[in-house]
Amino acid sequence: MSRGIPLSRRLTRIASVLGLLIVSAAPFNTDLPVVSAQERPALLVDDTETANPELVEVAVADPLGFGISGQTLRVPPGYSVSVVAGGLGGPRFMDFDDASNLLVGAADDGVVYRFPYLAADGRLGEPEVLIAGLQQPASVTVFTADDGQYLYVGEETQVSRFPYDPAGPIGAQQIIIPDLPAGGHRTRTVAFGPDGMLYLAVGSSCNICLEQEPIRATVSRANPDGTDLNIFATGMRNPVGLAFQPGTDLLWATVNERDNQGNEIPPDLVTVVMEGADYGWPGCIPPDAKPQEAESECFGTTPPTIGIQAHSAPLGLAFLEGEEIPGAVNGDLIVAQHGSWNREPPAAPKLLLIDFEAGAPVAARDFVTGWQDASGERWGRPAGVVVAPDGSLIISDDTTGLLYRISAEGGGS
User: Fold this and answer.
1) Which letter does DSSP use for residue 47 in this model?
2) Cα distances (Å, whole numbers) of residue 173 to 100, 170, 176, 212, 227
3) Among 181, 200, 320, 345, which residue's CB has the most CB atoms within a 10 Å radius?
């Protein structure tokens, strides 16, 4: 089904440079042809270039008393921020079901929570522990398959699905993709495309290494029941967020690139994931496929679509689309940057807005900042982002355990 660069060929190519021998028996279809190099990235920006002097400081409303009164964020004029939930253990990625319930994967709790969304005022109702006892449930998505509606959960070593009723209890767990490798980058992101197929992101086990597990550092694709799992694209050190651009079949991903190469090297990525593409990790450094080692062979590496601040750790992403979205940002992309751990000064946690024109990215600017002060001290770290039914944004913070609602004056984002 899938085509691209054979993982065995990629590993052998790198291994030959390093004088290593790799023998792998992969349970996945890795017979992927070479893809020719594409044009240079459409957009390369860093924090200096995305700084937005138009942002204004607002108090973060905490009407339910989750303990952050006095904190402020910087947002576009006319926007407000409020805390709508708290006390969650490592909330990451989220989804809304057809009944406007918010589903939240809380990785540290091992729980998927379900919150009624009260669209009249943007509040969340009392949370329900929908599923417990999971393995780092970092992502959730609802999808209607041929045999009914399911809630899909990306767990560290497996993808599970559960028969789902927005108004009722959850069904029995079905493990549809078992035996994913543990350790290293542990999040497993699941998303569905307009083709009705399941897409799965699995990060690397290391910073720079030769992987023994072919599914590492890839995005794969499978049928909704998990069968016919094939590698879709390779060479992404840690692909985290996945989102399809509305009205297209373009899959976008956030990619955390390699560390310890310097403050500005290499950029982290927000990129279209092309079928059969190899984005270069570990042998080739984006955006221009510079060899990691002098002898590395980087011919055929696919450049990213967008490079952003090095080590900024982009995680969740969501396209702003719909009647409730203000026209100025309709069609644009929001990216949650988690912030750096190995950069001086630290790259700050923030929300980045990527401006699209005619369906293509043309610029980027800060959308929400203020989780980090001038000295590098942080009080929060955004992780996931989802568009609510009324057009506002729900942001998860896996450090504070909070969910924020960001809305434009009069509702929406």
Assistant:
1) H
2) 23, 9, 9, 29, 16
3) 200
Q: Where are the beta strands (DSSP E) in 169-244?
A: 174-177, 188-192, 198-202, 218-222, 230-233, 239-244
Q: How far apart are CA 380 and CA 225, in angstroms?
A: 37
Dihedral in degrees, nearest 10, Cα atoms 48, 52, 53, 56: -140
- HSE of 54 in the Cβ direction (CA atoms, 13 Å)? 8
Instruction: Give the full edge-to-edge strand order of the sheet including 148-155.
Output: 139-145, 148-155, 158-163, 174-177
Domains of the chain: 7-408 (2.120.10.30)
Residues 6+ apart with CB under 8 A from 83: 60, 61, 62, 63, 64, 66, 68, 402, 403, 404, 405
Helical (H) or strand (E) element with 317: strand 314-319
Question: Scanning the structure block, which residue is given the tokens 């929570």?
Answer: 113
pLDDT in tens, the chain (413 residues): 333 333 333 433 333 322 322 223 334 454 444 333 345 456 999 999 999 999 999 999 999 999 898 999 999 999 999 999 999 999 999 999 999 999 999 999 999 999 999 877 888 999 999 999 999 999 999 999 999 999 999 999 999 999 999 999 999 999 999 999 999 999 999 999 999 999 999 999 999 999 999 999 999 999 999 999 999 999 999 999 999 999 999 999 999 999 999 999 999 999 999 999 999 999 999 999 999 998 889 999 999 999 999 999 999 999 999 889 999 999 999 999 999 998 999 999 999 999 999 999 999 999 999 999 999 999 999 999 999 999 999 999 999 999 999 999 866 67
> How many whole angstroms separate alpha carbon 28 and alpha carbon 290?
29
Burial class (CB in 10 A: 0-12, 13-18, 19+), 377: exposed
Query: From the CB of residue 260, how many other CB atoms can be counted at a distance below 10 Å?
Result: 9
Read off the pTM: 0.90
